[in-house]
Amino acid sequence: MRTEQLEYIAAVTRLGSLRRAAEELRLSQPALSETVRNLERELGVALLERKRSGATMSAEGRELLPHIVGVLEAVDRLRSAAGEQHRVSRMVRVGTVNAATVPLLVPVVRAFRAAHPRTQVEVVAAQQTEIHRALTEGGFDLGLVNHLEGDDTPAALESTPLLRGRPVVCVRPDSPLASRAAVSVDDLLDQPLIAMRSGYLMHRYVHRLLDGRTPSFSYSTDGAEMGKLMVAEGLGATVLPDFSVVGDPLERLGAITYRPLADAGTRVLLMLQRRRSVSVPRAARGLREEFVRRAGELGGTLSPSERRPPGAG
User: Fold this and answer.
1) Window from 5-19, 168-182, 214-228 with minimum mean pLDDT
2) Cβ distance 9 to 32 under 8 Å?
3) What's the chain's average pLDDT?
4) Distance (Å, rounded) from C-alpha 33 to C-alpha 232?
5) Alpha-carbon distance 308 to 312, whole Å?
6) Can you tell me the mean pLDDT for 253-263?
7) Contact of 115 with 302, CB cutoff 8 Å
8) Distance of CA 271 to CAs 71, 142, 200, 284, Å?
9) Which residue, 47, 106, 143, 256, could crosslink 273 as a Cys pair with Cβ 3.0–4.6 Å?
10) Of 86, 84, 96, 97, nearest in space to 120 by CA
């Protein structure tokens, strides 16, 4: 067994494809495939499930993944102690539902990059179910997801609350809704509504909020970032967690603003999740610590809109 074989398995798991792993490792795909098969024969275990859509860890592979990561970490420590250069750059993959991009994610990545210049950070936008699956299979190291307060969290994942906010209505400053102290459901129904597609937490929340009623006109979009751009272009209003709006470049520039919903009882949590494992990559641990530190600076469990009401500088 060679260290390279374990590194190749880790790359295939992270990227979900033999082809993409071969490109990153600068190997031919047949050579990579044969190396992985040799390791599987040596261990007597099928580590990968190969499908037309890509390669994912098998159930047996997921059980062995913490041990593979542990070996690679031990090799890293040995190389570091010997003063050798790492042959490959480490990468941390973060799945996010596009929440708190500006006030949290961007500063965290910037600070982590300054402290770990040899470690790459890959940020992947995905829906919550996709993030949970990738975390479980080892494709993501960390995940940023939204939860309504009281929701269950997956038992296989370790969840750390970072930010606690509330749903708000995101509008243009010249929207009729911007003149309201708070926006009621009836107010919302009178305006074109930009809704998240099914699979996003805010889609579920808005569906529950409207209780079967339909707005005058509605759009569907993927993720908060596109929703905010559509609001800035005057296409309508959208409902998002306040921590996804407060501090956004569009909000700082005055292109969008927000107003609280009359339904003030609901709280949204931004959670940082990772796979429960006895062996977590060192780089992923460092990035997680930076997320927790930054969230503490932002006030953690205090709602962003309570820290800085609309119109505050």
Assistant:
1) 5-19
2) no
3) 83
4) 48
5) 6
6) 91
7) no
8) 29, 10, 14, 16
9) 143
10) 86
CB atoms near residue 151 (< 10 Å) = 13
pLDDT higher than threshold 90 for residue 291: yes
Kindly list the strands in the beta sheet with 218-221, ordered across the sheet, starting from the edge strand earlier in the chain.
218-221, 193-196, 237-241, 167-171, 257-260
State yes or no: pLDDT of 259 exceeds 80: yes
Average pLDDT, integer, range 111-116: 90
Please give the backbone phi and psi of residue 291, each rounded to the nearest 5 degrees, phi first: -60, -45
Taking alpha carbons only, the member of 104, 144, 36 closest to residue 243 is 104
Radius of gyration of the chain from its Cα atoms, rounded to whole angstroms: 22
Note the pTM of the prediction, 2 decimals.
Answer: 0.67
pLDDT at 302 over 80: no
Contact 76, 282 (CB under 8 A): yes
Q: Rounded distance, CA 102 to CA 287, Å?
A: 16
Q: pLDDT at position 278, please?
A: 55
- Measured in residues, the chain has a length of 313
In eight-state DSSP terms, residue 244 is G
Residue 86 is given by DSSP the state P
Q: Specify whether the CB–CB gap between 21 and 5 falls below 8 A.
A: no
DSSP 88-139: S--EEEEEE-S-SIIIIIHHHHHHHHHH-TT-EEEEEE--HHHHHHHHHHTS
